[in-house]
Write a structure and sequence with these properties.
heterotrimer, A mainly alpha (about 130), B mainly alpha (about 110), C mainly alpha (about 375), A: about 130 residues, mainly alpha, Helix Hairpins, about 65% helix, B: about 110 residues, 5 helices
Chain lengths: ~130, ~110, ~375
């Protein structure tokens, strides 16, 4: 196994880890991190699977693509992080409401939910009414 | 001859990196750890830089190595200072102070 | 590279590759957001090392400055914002049944008196029922296996694209093949990617219209002579290095993206040290600088059409000058966009709990809106 294959395999592992993190974690920051890892894994595969030039230098075409890809990934991360941060601050929870498990509604209990005051009740209602999974 | 000298310097550098990492893992509080990491790693990097400078093909490459080392020195010192300051501000007490207080030595604990 | 080398080098590559996978796994499965953020920066730097080992120095430069530097700074400031709202402590370790979890998330463990912080739950499929987690793990293994099997059976092809690049390099006006691909062969791609950057900046800037906040509150910022001195030393050096990178990009590793990334790193340092700002999204010069790269790129591409007959083709003889011009302006614009993203992403308006109680059904931020549309910051002003 050449070092190139090694890095390509690492790229595959990182890509799948990122996919699992994106789909499997509820916390929005980890979802953003997961998408970032999927990108890094794809870049690694792209670069390691391309043939080398005689001098050991990597193929310039995937190099250019990965280079711009990194820049675009940063801007996408910034946008996603900005939205995740606003969801967290405005609802008091860094998750999407679909990720919160729902239970059978018990109207009696719904009234005593006033523990964290910095969250408008309407957002919480949105979280509880949703039916996920 | 130069190869041997260079290898010796690189190994010495690696030894200081090891020592710094050991300090990071074993020392009791953030201040000691910062001390170990910053001091040992800066010295280690110096040895590595000199070892590589012996192998460098031109004086401009040696100058670049020197500049890199100086820049890392300044940056590491600043980062260590910032980390220690924010740790102090968060109320993390140095381990000596805690120990002195535990032994009822009012002079040092004050 | 490509052929197995000395055991030492093989060991180095194996270590770097294992470290990358291990870090990714640790970051994605830890419950401590701060740990994840710090390790993410370590991952970026390790990946940068991997790019060097793969013979891609151009990419390594950008990865260190952007993947580790700017993205890391973005996550750190976002973490800081969450922490100030009490939303960044490590997630609750326990795995709850759905009923129990719901009770805890709505009531918070604070009410039970056993934890001063409200519960921050670890939710998602990874905390669902066992069969769901098991099937997710199996699916992940299957996808990894599939990709790995394909990679391992990949035939050893001779390089084809690089030969084409090599053959036509003389016509591009530059001798760095990566710059030739970026600004000549595939200039269309690059143009659209710069457009993506500008769109991202506009989108982030419009997340909170009218509530531009500087990333560091003035009262929070303290005089720090040491940090000041570092910034004053490093930022001019970064400026010089950026100019060098744009120039050297025509014949060696470097170019607009790396120079822009470096300048952005310097700008982020200035903003974090409180030496630049408050930077406002509404400032016209900033917006002009941000779109200037795109505008000049389009102008050059369209302006030479009478001579070349096609968009983004440079007239023979002018390639070097035009590419250098586009690269210089692009570097500046990329830096401005990235700094602006760094400033805008954490700019979350403060949600005053008292105001949220005054008018819970109105503005999602809990602000009072007066009839003429202005935000009433202080409820007492109303009277």
């Amino acid at each position: 196994m050449t070092p190139l294959t090694l890095y390509a395999l690492a790229g595959a592992g990182i890509f799948v880890l990122g996919l699992v993190g994106t789909l499997g974690r509820g916390h929005l920051f980890w979802k953003v991190l997961g998408v970032n890892f999927m990108g890094s894994g794809a870049f690694l595969i792209l670069m390691a699977a391309s043939p080398r030039l005689p001098g050991g230098e990597a193929d310039p075409v995937p190099q250019a693509m990965v280079l711009t890809g990194i820049v675009v990934a940063v801007s996408a991360t910034a946008l996603a992080l900005g939205m995740a941060l606003r969801v967290a601050v405005r609802t008091g929870r860094p998750y999407l409401s679909e990720d919160l498990p729902t239970k059978t509604p018990e109207p009696v209990e719904e009234s005593d939910v006033e523990s964290s005051p910095d969250r408008p009740p309407k957002d919480r209602a949105g979280g509880e009414e949703s039916t996920a999974h | 001859m130069i190869d041997i000298l260079s290898a010796a310097l690189l190994l010495t550098g690696a030894f200081f990196f090891m020592a710094g990492t050991l300090g990071l893992l074993r020392f009791p509080d953030i201040y000691c750890r910062l001390h170990a990491l910053t001091k040992a790693d800066n010295l280690g990097l110096g040895f590595v830089a000199v070892g590589l400078a012996l192998q460098a093909s031109s004086w401009s490459a040696r100058l670049q190595l020197l500049l890199t080392w100086l820049l890392v020195l300044v940056a590491a010192a600043t980062v260590a200072h910032l980390l220690a300051r924010s740790a102090l501000r968060e109320g993390i007490e140095p381990v000596r102070m805690l120990a002195d207080r535990a032994h009822g030595d009012p002079d040092d604990a004050a | 590279m490509g052929i197995p080398m000395t055991p030492l080098e093989w060991g180095l590559d194996a270590t770097v590759a294992l470290l990358l996978v291990g870090l990714a796994g640790r970051i994605l499965f830890t419950r401590d957001l701060f740990e994840a953020t710090v390790l993410f920066i370590a991952f970026g730097l390790t990946l940068s090392l991997a790019w060097v080992r793969l013979g891609a120095a151009n990419v390594a430069l950008a990865e260190a400055a952007l993947g580790a530097g700017v993205t890391g700074a973005l996550f750190l400031t976002a973490f800081h914002r969450l922490a100030r709202r009490g939303l960044a402590h490590p997630l609750d370790r326990q795995r709850y049944r759905a009923d129990e979890l719901h009770d805890r998330s709505s009531r918070g463990r604070a009410d039970r008196g056993d934890d001063p912080k409200p519960a921050l739950l670890d939710v998602g499929i990874l905390h669902g029922p066992l069969w769901l987690r098991a099937s997710m793990a199996l699916a992940g293994l299957a996808v990894t296996g599939g990709i790995a099997a394909r990679l391992l059976t990949l035939a050893d092809r001779p390089p084809s694209l690089p030969i084409l690049v090599e053959a036509h390099l003389a016509e591009t006006g530059v001798s760095n093949p990566v710059t030739a691909v970026l600004l000549n062969f595939r200039a269309y791609d690059t143009l659209l990617e710069v457009a993506v950057l500008v769109v991202a900046m506009i989108a982030v800037g419009s997340l909170d219209r009218g509530s531009r906040a500087f990333v560091r509150d003035p009262e929070e910022l303290e005089e720090d002579p040491v940090l000041d001195a570092l910034s004053r030393l490093v930022v001019p050096l970064a400026g010089v290095a950026a100019v060098y990178l744009v120039w050297v990009g025509s014949h060696g590793p470097g170019g607009a993206f790396q120079a822009g990334a470096l300048l952005a790193g310097a700008g982020v340092l200035l903003v974090a040290a409180g030496l630049m700002g408050p930077v406002t999204e509404g400032a016209a010069p900033i917006r002009a600088l941000a779109v200037m790269g795109l505008a000049i790129f389009i102008a050059v591409g369209a302006g030479s059409m009478p001579w070349t007959g096609s968009f983004l083709a440079y007239p023979p003889g002018t390639e070097y000058g035009l590419i250098l011009l586009v690269e210089a302006v692009l570097a500046l614009s990329i830096a401005v966009v990235l700094i602006e993203l760094f400033v805008d992403v954490p700019a979350v308006p403060h949600v005053d709990p008292a105001l949220a109680k005054v008018d819970p059904t109105g503005d999602p931020l809990g602000r009072r809106i007066s009839p003429d549309g202005a935000v009433i910051r202080n409820p007492d002003e109303e009277r």
